[in-house]
Design a protein that fits this description.
Blueprint: E1 2-4, H1 17-20, E2 24-27, H2 33-45, E3 51-54, H3 58-66, E4 71-72, H4 80-84, E5 88-90, H5 114-125
Parallel strand pairs: 2-3, 2-4
Antiparallel strand pairs: 1-5
Pfam family, one: LysR_substrate
Organism: Pelotomaculum schinkii
GO molecular function, one term: transcription cis-regulatory region binding
Length: about 130
């Protein structure tokens, strides 16, 4: 979960459910994989937000969070630059981390192709943090 650098959540260690009820959640449009993942996570944890705003792309969500419109769940890799420039902060409370699991499937007869091997090697070395 990300907030603007100036948002009070950026300094809090623990955020309560009551805190969330005052916030606007910025999230992707219905039907997107990111939205589905966030919806499932929020339902499982029974987190509720006062307002929700649908936004069609992650770049716009980032700019809206920087402007203080709301908070959002986005992949950490998508905000790497904004985090380093101190425009955004990740919320420190670990209960807001959404685990993501990837599965790679390849055709049985193509697993030894150089491009497939290179891609597999890249994925194994790719930092997800």
């Amino acid at each position: 979960m990300i907030s603007s650098h100036k948002h009070p959540y950026s300094q809090k260690e623990v955020i309560s459910t009551k805190d969330l009820q005052k916030e606007t959640l910025l999230w992707r449009e219905k039907g997107s994989a990111a939205r589905t993942l966030v919806e499932q996570f929020l339902n499982d944890k029974q987190f509720h937000f006062k307002n929700r705003m649908e936004v069609s792309d992650t770049e716009t969500i980032k700019h809206m969070v920087i402007a203080g419109v709301g908070i959002a769940f986005v992949p950490k890799l998508a905000v790497r630059q904004e985090l380093s420039l101190l425009l955004l902060r990740t919320v420190n409370d670990s209960k807001f981390l959404i685990p993501i699991h990837f599965t790679v499937i390849s055709a049985k007869d193509q697993h030894t192709y150089p491009t497939v091997l290179a891609f597999s090697s890249f994925l194994r070395k790719w930092p997800l943090n």
